[in-house]
Amino acid sequence: MVGNISRAVFALAMVAGIVLVLDNRATAANTERPGPLPRPLVDEPLASAKGEQTAVFAGGCFWGIEAVFQHVKGVKSAVSGYTGGSVVSPSYEQVTTGTTGHAEAVRVVYDPSQVTYGQLLRVFFSVAHDPTQLNRQGPDVGTQYRSAIYYASNSQKRVATAYIDQLTKAKAFSRPIVTEVAALGRFNVAEEYHQEYAAKHPYQPYIMIHDAPKVANLKREFADLYVEQEKR
């Protein structure tokens, strides 16, 4: 996501009515929006009893990824953080330099008796981000904004790689999927001011342009999975 100074300039420009027009044009030109993607052919079955499992996704600024999964049925919590890097306890300032190897990511704790891992993947690829953008999402550029799935089990790895293969063979996107699939290592929870950022700042220009539409798309395209109440 853009820095504090850039955000201030961005906000002023939007008030003037300039950035909104330019950004909408850029989004239309650079973002894949295929609509609801096909259901995964390979998935974990719904569990017979309630429990907890963890999934971790990265796809640009974690504000938007978090906001989407906070509205998915069966998700108990969605927390922003950093993973995939070499620094033991990175700060936001360190991660934004792109030198720590971390990605902005979201840890999703979900009930597998209500939603499957494959359904979470379908949401991730359909509305949460653009998996064809390499090391960026919209205005945010750098390896910290890469598209990635961090699997917590061999079963998750199997489902994730199978779904990417399925989407590739179906030519679901006009450009190649660049999402990396890697084993989940240490996940560092991001600073408190990043948590529930979209819910707390619904009228922040960045949220209005880049993240609120993702939640709206979830509600429209996945009505069976959408819930109104956000979960931290």
Which helices and strands, and how do they pair?
Layout lengths: L3 H12 L3 H12 L22 E7 L2 H8 L5 E9 L8 H4 L7 E8 L6 H12 L7 E2 L2 E2 L5 E5 L2 H16 L10 E4 L3 E3 L7 H4 L4 H17 L11
Parallel strand pairs: 6-7
Antiparallel strand pairs: 1-3, 1-6, 2-3, 2-8, 4-5
Question: Explain this structure to me?
Answer:
The chain has 232 residues and is of the alpha+beta class. It has one domain (4-221): Peptide Methionine Sulfoxide Reductase, Chain A (2-Layer Sandwich). 37% of the residues lie in helices and 17% in strands. The protein has helices at residues 4-15, 19-30, 62-69, 92-95, 117-128, 154-169, 197-200, 205-221, and strands spanning 53-59, 75-83, 103-110, 136-137, 140-141, 147-151, 180-183, 187-189. Strands 7-6-1-3-2-8 form a six-stranded mixed sheet, covered by helices on one side. Helix 3 packs parallel to helix 8, helix 5 packs across helix 6 and helix 5 crosses helix 8 (205-221). The radius of gyration is 17 Å and the shape is globular. Residues 4-30 have low confidence and may be disordered.
- Broad structural category: alpha+beta
The termini sit apart by: 21 Å
Rounded to an integer in angstroms, the radius of gyration calculated over CA atoms is: 17 Å
Poorly predicted spans: 4-30
Number of domains: 1
Please give the count of helices.
Answer: 8
